[in-house]
Amino acid sequence: xxxxxxxxxxxxxxxxxxxxxxxxxxxxxxxxxxxxxxxxxxxxxxxxxxxxxxxxxxxxxxxxxxxxxxxxxxxxxxxxxxxxxxxxxxxxxxxxxxxxxxxxxxxxxxxxxxxxxxxxxxxxxxxxxxxxxxxxxxxxxxxxxxxxxxxxxxxxxxxxxxxxxxxxxxxxxxxxxxxxxxxxxxxxxxxxxxxxxxxxxxxxxxxxxxxxxxxxxxxxxxxxxxxxxxxxxxxxxxxxxxxxxxxx
Length: 248
Ligand SMILES: Nc1ncnc2c1ncn2[C@@H]1O[C@H](COP(=O)(O)OP(=O)(O)OP(=O)(O)O)[C@@H](O)[C@H]1O
Ligand SMILES: [Mg+2]
Prior knowledge:
The chain has 248 residues and is an alpha/beta fold. The chain contains 7 helices and 9 strands.
Protein backbone atom coordinates (compact mmCIF):
# COMPACT_ATOMS: atom_id res chain seq x y z
CA UNK A 1 0.00 0.00 0.00
CA UNK A 2 1.32 3.46 -0.87
CA UNK A 3 2.02 5.54 2.21
CA UNK A 4 0.32 8.93 2.40
CA UNK A 5 3.60 10.54 3.45
CA UNK A 6 7.24 9.72 2.80
CA UNK A 7 10.16 11.57 4.31
CA UNK A 8 13.62 10.84 2.93
CA UNK A 9 16.96 11.89 4.42
CA UNK A 10 15.51 14.99 6.00
CA UNK A 11 17.93 17.39 7.67
CA UNK A 12 17.44 20.70 9.42
CA UNK A 13 19.60 23.42 10.88
CA UNK A 14 19.00 26.97 12.00
CA UNK A 15 21.11 30.07 11.52
CA UNK A 16 21.01 32.16 14.68
CA UNK A 17 21.15 35.71 13.36
CA UNK A 18 21.12 37.14 16.87
CA UNK A 19 24.30 35.15 17.62
CA UNK A 20 26.44 36.44 14.78
CA UNK A 21 25.06 33.95 12.25
CA UNK A 22 25.90 30.86 14.34
CA UNK A 23 24.71 27.62 12.69
CA UNK A 24 22.74 25.17 14.83
CA UNK A 25 22.25 21.76 13.29
CA UNK A 26 19.23 19.91 14.73
CA UNK A 27 18.37 16.90 12.58
CA UNK A 28 20.03 14.73 9.97
CA UNK A 29 19.08 11.87 7.70
CA UNK A 30 15.57 11.27 9.00
CA UNK A 31 13.42 8.98 6.88
CA UNK A 32 9.91 7.73 7.63
CA UNK A 33 6.75 6.46 6.02
CA UNK A 34 3.27 7.11 7.28
CA UNK A 35 0.25 5.08 6.18
CA UNK A 36 -3.46 5.84 6.16
CA UNK A 37 -5.22 4.91 9.36
CA UNK A 38 -2.08 4.87 11.50
CA UNK A 39 -0.78 7.09 14.29
CA UNK A 40 2.99 7.39 14.47
CA UNK A 41 4.23 8.94 17.70
CA UNK A 42 7.45 10.96 17.79
CA UNK A 43 9.48 10.27 20.90
CA UNK A 44 12.61 11.72 22.46
CA UNK A 45 13.62 14.30 25.04
CA UNK A 46 12.87 18.01 24.98
CA UNK A 47 14.80 19.86 22.31
CA UNK A 48 15.40 16.82 20.10
CA UNK A 49 13.43 18.26 17.17
CA UNK A 50 9.90 16.79 17.45
CA UNK A 51 8.04 20.06 16.92
CA UNK A 52 10.59 21.09 14.29
CA UNK A 53 9.70 17.98 12.26
CA UNK A 54 5.97 18.75 12.44
CA UNK A 55 6.65 22.37 11.43
CA UNK A 56 8.60 21.20 8.38
CA UNK A 57 5.74 18.90 7.39
CA UNK A 58 3.27 21.79 7.76
CA UNK A 59 5.47 24.18 5.77
CA UNK A 60 6.21 26.50 8.71
CA UNK A 61 9.91 25.64 8.51
CA UNK A 62 11.80 24.92 5.31
CA UNK A 63 13.59 21.58 5.16
CA UNK A 64 17.38 21.83 5.09
CA UNK A 65 18.14 18.63 3.18
CA UNK A 66 16.08 15.75 1.93
CA UNK A 67 12.64 15.32 0.55
CA UNK A 68 9.06 15.23 1.85
CA UNK A 69 6.41 13.77 -0.42
CA UNK A 70 2.68 13.49 -0.04
CA UNK A 71 0.86 10.78 -1.96
CA UNK A 72 -2.59 12.16 -2.27
CA UNK A 73 -4.98 12.66 -5.17
CA UNK A 74 -3.09 12.49 -8.46
CA UNK A 75 0.36 11.16 -7.73
CA UNK A 76 3.09 12.32 -5.38
CA UNK A 77 3.42 15.96 -4.42
CA UNK A 78 6.83 17.16 -3.30
CA UNK A 79 6.32 19.39 -0.26
CA UNK A 80 9.98 20.35 -0.19
CA UNK A 81 9.53 22.04 -3.57
CA UNK A 82 6.00 23.32 -3.12
CA UNK A 83 5.56 27.01 -4.04
CA UNK A 84 4.37 29.20 -1.16
CA UNK A 85 0.99 29.91 -2.74
CA UNK A 86 0.08 26.19 -2.85
CA UNK A 87 0.25 25.74 0.94
CA UNK A 88 -3.04 27.47 1.65
CA UNK A 89 -5.17 24.92 -0.21
CA UNK A 90 -3.04 22.05 1.09
CA UNK A 91 -3.59 23.10 4.71
CA UNK A 92 -7.27 23.71 4.09
CA UNK A 93 -7.93 20.34 2.49
CA UNK A 94 -5.17 17.85 3.27
CA UNK A 95 -2.88 18.62 6.21
CA UNK A 96 -4.33 19.58 9.59
CA UNK A 97 -2.22 20.74 12.53
CA UNK A 98 -3.05 21.00 16.20
CA UNK A 99 -0.40 23.25 17.70
CA UNK A 100 0.28 23.13 21.43
CA UNK A 101 -1.21 26.58 21.96
CA UNK A 102 -4.27 28.18 20.42
CA UNK A 103 -3.63 31.28 18.35
CA UNK A 104 -6.15 33.64 19.84
CA UNK A 105 -7.82 36.20 17.59
CA UNK A 106 -9.59 39.01 19.50
CA UNK A 107 -13.39 39.17 19.16
CA UNK A 108 -13.72 35.81 17.41
CA UNK A 109 -15.82 33.44 19.53
CA UNK A 110 -14.77 29.91 20.42
CA UNK A 111 -17.56 28.55 18.24
CA UNK A 112 -16.38 30.58 15.23
CA UNK A 113 -12.75 29.54 15.81
CA UNK A 114 -13.86 25.92 15.53
CA UNK A 115 -16.21 26.48 12.55
CA UNK A 116 -13.61 28.36 10.50
CA UNK A 117 -11.82 25.38 8.81
CA UNK A 118 -15.17 24.15 7.46
CA UNK A 119 -16.31 27.61 6.34
CA UNK A 120 -12.97 28.04 4.53
CA UNK A 121 -14.00 25.07 2.38
CA UNK A 122 -17.35 26.61 1.62
CA UNK A 123 -19.38 24.46 4.01
CA UNK A 124 -22.90 25.46 4.96
CA UNK A 125 -22.88 27.75 8.04
CA UNK A 126 -25.61 25.86 9.92
CA UNK A 127 -23.84 22.56 9.37
CA UNK A 128 -20.46 23.98 10.43
CA UNK A 129 -22.06 25.43 13.54
CA UNK A 130 -23.74 22.16 14.44
CA UNK A 131 -20.50 20.21 14.03
CA UNK A 132 -18.52 22.76 16.03
CA UNK A 133 -21.02 22.60 18.87
CA UNK A 134 -21.02 18.81 18.87
CA UNK A 135 -17.23 18.79 19.21
CA UNK A 136 -17.16 21.48 21.91
CA UNK A 137 -19.80 19.56 23.87
CA UNK A 138 -17.85 16.31 23.53
CA UNK A 139 -14.78 18.10 24.84
CA UNK A 140 -16.81 19.32 27.82
CA UNK A 141 -16.38 23.01 27.09
CA UNK A 142 -19.21 24.72 29.02
CA UNK A 143 -21.87 26.10 26.68
CA UNK A 144 -21.67 29.55 28.26
CA UNK A 145 -18.14 29.86 26.79
CA UNK A 146 -19.05 29.04 23.20
CA UNK A 147 -19.97 32.64 22.28
CA UNK A 148 -16.93 34.18 23.97
CA UNK A 149 -13.49 34.81 22.45
CA UNK A 150 -11.06 32.27 23.99
CA UNK A 151 -8.48 34.91 24.98
CA UNK A 152 -9.46 34.74 28.66
CA UNK A 153 -10.02 30.95 28.76
CA UNK A 154 -7.87 28.69 30.93
CA UNK A 155 -5.03 26.74 29.29
CA UNK A 156 -7.08 23.55 29.17
CA UNK A 157 -10.14 25.35 27.78
CA UNK A 158 -8.06 26.96 25.03
CA UNK A 159 -6.49 23.61 24.23
CA UNK A 160 -9.92 22.00 23.84
CA UNK A 161 -10.99 24.77 21.41
CA UNK A 162 -7.78 24.13 19.48
CA UNK A 163 -8.43 20.38 19.35
CA UNK A 164 -12.01 20.89 18.15
CA UNK A 165 -10.68 23.22 15.44
CA UNK A 166 -8.03 20.67 14.44
CA UNK A 167 -10.39 17.70 14.22
CA UNK A 168 -13.46 19.35 12.65
CA UNK A 169 -11.92 19.39 9.17
CA UNK A 170 -11.29 15.63 9.09
CA UNK A 171 -8.03 16.15 7.19
CA UNK A 172 -6.44 13.02 5.70
CA UNK A 173 -3.16 13.89 7.45
CA UNK A 174 -3.14 15.34 10.95
CA UNK A 175 -0.14 16.64 12.89
CA UNK A 176 -0.62 16.76 16.67
CA UNK A 177 1.84 18.66 18.87
CA UNK A 178 1.09 17.70 22.48
CA UNK A 179 -2.67 18.13 22.15
CA UNK A 180 -3.34 16.71 25.63
CA UNK A 181 -0.66 18.56 27.62
CA UNK A 182 -3.10 20.76 29.59
CA UNK A 183 -6.05 18.37 29.82
CA UNK A 184 -7.52 16.39 32.70
CA UNK A 185 -7.99 12.62 32.46
CA UNK A 186 -11.60 12.79 31.23
CA UNK A 187 -10.74 15.14 28.39
CA UNK A 188 -7.60 13.20 27.52
CA UNK A 189 -9.90 10.24 26.97
CA UNK A 190 -12.08 12.29 24.62
CA UNK A 191 -8.98 13.15 22.58
CA UNK A 192 -7.97 9.47 22.49
CA UNK A 193 -11.45 8.68 21.14
CA UNK A 194 -11.19 11.43 18.50
CA UNK A 195 -7.86 9.96 17.38
CA UNK A 196 -9.35 6.47 17.14
CA UNK A 197 -12.28 7.81 15.11
CA UNK A 198 -9.87 9.64 12.78
CA UNK A 199 -7.91 6.41 12.27
CA UNK A 200 -11.15 4.54 11.51
CA UNK A 201 -11.96 6.98 8.70
CA UNK A 202 -8.45 6.44 7.30
CA UNK A 203 -6.67 9.56 8.53
CA UNK A 204 -2.92 9.32 9.11
CA UNK A 205 -1.52 11.04 12.18
CA UNK A 206 1.91 12.07 13.37
CA UNK A 207 1.81 13.07 17.00
CA UNK A 208 3.77 14.10 20.06
CA UNK A 209 2.36 12.99 23.41
CA UNK A 210 4.29 13.36 26.63
CA UNK A 211 1.60 11.52 28.56
CA UNK A 212 2.66 7.86 28.64
CA UNK A 213 -0.89 6.60 29.04
CA UNK A 214 -2.21 8.55 26.02
CA UNK A 215 0.78 7.47 23.98
CA UNK A 216 0.11 3.81 24.66
CA UNK A 217 -3.54 4.18 23.78
CA UNK A 218 -3.03 5.92 20.43
CA UNK A 219 0.39 4.89 19.05
CA UNK A 220 0.62 2.25 16.36
CA UNK A 221 4.36 2.85 16.17
CA UNK A 222 6.93 4.94 18.00
CA UNK A 223 9.69 6.85 16.24
CA UNK A 224 12.49 7.79 18.67
CA UNK A 225 14.28 10.81 17.22
CA UNK A 226 17.59 10.30 19.08
CA UNK A 227 19.18 8.48 16.17
CA UNK A 228 18.47 11.41 13.84
CA UNK A 229 20.09 14.01 16.05
CA UNK A 230 22.63 16.10 14.27
CA UNK A 231 26.19 15.31 15.47
CA UNK A 232 26.45 18.71 17.13
CA UNK A 233 23.59 17.84 19.49
CA UNK A 234 24.37 14.17 20.11
CA UNK A 235 25.61 13.58 23.68
CA UNK A 236 28.75 11.70 22.59
CA UNK A 237 29.66 14.10 19.81
CA UNK A 238 33.09 15.67 19.71
CA UNK A 239 33.37 19.38 19.08
CA UNK A 240 33.09 19.94 15.36
CA UNK A 241 35.59 22.53 14.28
CA UNK A 242 34.29 22.47 10.72
CA UNK A 243 30.94 23.85 11.83
CA UNK A 244 32.35 26.00 14.56
CA UNK A 245 29.52 25.06 16.92
CA UNK A 246 29.67 25.63 20.66
CA UNK A 247 29.76 22.66 23.00
CA UNK A 248 28.87 22.56 26.65
N1 LIG B 1 13.12 28.90 14.83
C1 LIG B 1 14.17 28.39 15.47
N2 LIG B 1 15.36 29.04 15.52
C2 LIG B 1 16.42 28.52 16.15
N3 LIG B 1 16.42 27.34 16.79
C3 LIG B 1 15.28 26.64 16.78
C4 LIG B 1 14.09 27.12 16.13
N4 LIG B 1 13.11 26.21 16.30
C5 LIG B 1 13.64 25.21 17.02
N5 LIG B 1 14.94 25.47 17.30
C6 LIG B 1 15.85 24.59 18.06
O1 LIG B 1 15.74 23.28 17.53
C7 LIG B 1 15.82 22.32 18.58
C8 LIG B 1 14.62 21.42 18.54
O2 LIG B 1 13.46 22.16 18.95
P1 LIG B 1 12.01 21.53 19.00
O3 LIG B 1 11.07 22.60 19.39
O4 LIG B 1 11.76 20.84 17.70
O5 LIG B 1 12.16 20.45 20.15
P2 LIG B 1 11.10 19.43 20.75
O6 LIG B 1 11.64 18.06 20.56
O7 LIG B 1 9.75 19.72 20.17
O8 LIG B 1 11.14 19.79 22.31
P3 LIG B 1 9.95 19.88 23.43
O9 LIG B 1 9.69 18.45 23.84
O10 LIG B 1 10.56 20.67 24.51
O11 LIG B 1 8.76 20.55 22.79
C9 LIG B 1 15.97 23.10 19.88
O12 LIG B 1 17.32 23.13 20.23
C10 LIG B 1 15.47 24.49 19.51
O13 LIG B 1 16.10 25.46 20.29
MG1 LIG C 1 7.99 20.53 20.96
